[in-house]
Amino acid sequence: MIQNCDVLIIGGGPAGSIAAVKLLKAGHSVTLIEKISFPRFVIGESLLPRCNQLLEEAGLLDVIAAAGFKFKGGVAFRNEDNALKIVDFKDNLGQKHNSSFQVRRETFDHLLLKEAEKLGANVIMEAEVTAYDPKENTIEVRNKAQEMTVYRAKKVIDASGYGRVLPRLLNLELPSSLAPRNAIFCRMEHDKRTPDQPEGYIYVYVVGDNDAWIWNIPLSDSVTSVGIVSSDTYFESFSLPLEDFFDHTIRNNTHAKERYAEAQKINTVGYIGGYSSKVKNMFGEKFVMVGNATEFLDPVFSSGVTLALESGSKAADLIIREFQGKRIDWQVEYEDYMMVGVNVFKAYVEAWYDGRLQSILFSKKETVEKIEQKIVSVLSGYVWDEKNMFVHSPEASIDAIYALLKN
Length: 407
Ligand SMILES: Cc1cc2nc3c(=O)[nH]c(=O)nc-3n(C[C@H](O)[C@H](O)[C@H](O)COP(=O)(O)OP(=O)(O)OC[C@H]3O[C@@H](n4cnc5c(N)ncnc54)[C@H](O)[C@@H]3O)c2cc1C
Description:
Blueprint: E1 2-10, H1 14-25, E2 30-33, H2 49-57, H3 61-65, E3 70-72, E4 74-78, E5 84-88, E6 100-102, H4 105-118, E7 122-124, E8 128-133, E9 138-142, E10 148-158, H5 165-169, E11 173-174, E12 181-189, E13 201-207, E14 212-218, E15 223-231, H6 232-238, H7 242-252, H8 254-259, E16 264-265, E17 270-273, E18 278-279, E19 287-289, H9 304-323, H10 330-353, H11 356-362, H12 369-379, H13 389-392, H14 394-406
Parallel strand pairs: 1-2, 1-10, 2-7, 4-13, 10-19
Antiparallel strand pairs: 3-6, 4-5, 8-9, 9-10, 11-18, 12-15, 12-16, 12-17, 13-14, 14-15
Helix pairs in contact: 1-4, 1-9, 2-9, 9-10, 11-14
Flavin-adenine dinucleotide binds near residues 12 and 161.
């Protein structure tokens, strides 16, 4: 027998949960299929102020704010020449939110999913979407006991993240234009936080001459998430097992060496490679893809959860209007809209790896105050604010500031 619902969501990460919450609040029935049992770990622990705004709009900020996550006020970039650049979110263009959180994703994602469940979502855990028929809009789901159920929905949202269910099933995958990179990561306990490392920031240490970078995300007073991101070529040049590469990189970076001298790993070293991804298109007549199931860029500016919440939220708003009988132009209102933000972050990611952005950030020359604010606004996740020239023309603006500061 076929089970019917208004919207079927594949995946219970932030993109899926925020979409579910908005749809349920608008009175629609939601079935959410999640492959594994929660709480589950996923990488991506540092959020941006734009996340707070999206959570607030969905009525989810209070529950996240009450969970005791570490406050995040900005980003501190440090290179091997000991140059320090603090980007404080308070210096953005006056946007409503100017701080966020550093979160254990196993807790954060579970809290959001439980909110969807409280509102009446039919959440089916440890069940996997295995097939999709776009004509009939039917989805096949295999549960833990290997039983198959078929669902029919008016609309399907693919929020399967790294699972990339519909891109795989519908042959919509495209290679990313970004170079392949690796991330090797671990949680460490009892790192030394010196007085020149004020609380409330994610610390980004540049390794060598921009060979790699290390994220340092304080998750509690004593636990820090540490990750090393490098190109394939750099990583492979060491021919070291993961843990040895991790230890070697930490020992050989001026700042990490000091910070982790007495710290201990509290879990096994993890790895994710070739994580950047792209799709041919983000929607079809009866489905829409959100979050990492669409395009994922790079972790350097912590943009992943922001894009997941933005797309999940936007897709839900458009479905609600469509169910009210309004005509939706999914190309313009969804895909083109999302690509504005994605392309801004992409320009920043490219400028980070080719060194232009680091020259700007670490420059000792003064820029006009407004320029600084505009960059901070982008790094806060406000990448749809077309009044900001760094959103409107990201490449040209970065090039112009780079040329100005270089001379
Ligand atoms: C190295 C690295 C570091 C990162 N650091 C950051 C960071 O600091 N800040 C940040 O904002 N982002 C970061 N990210 C990005 C972040 O991980 C993602 O953008 C974010 O998790 C996307 O959320 P989502 O809801 O789209 O997908 P996910 O959080 O991946 O959730 C998808 C869910 O779908 C489920 N699923 C998969 N397949 C199926 C199936 N067949 N059937 C049913 N369910 C399925 C999965 O089990 C999963 O629970 C990082 C990424 C990488 C690679």
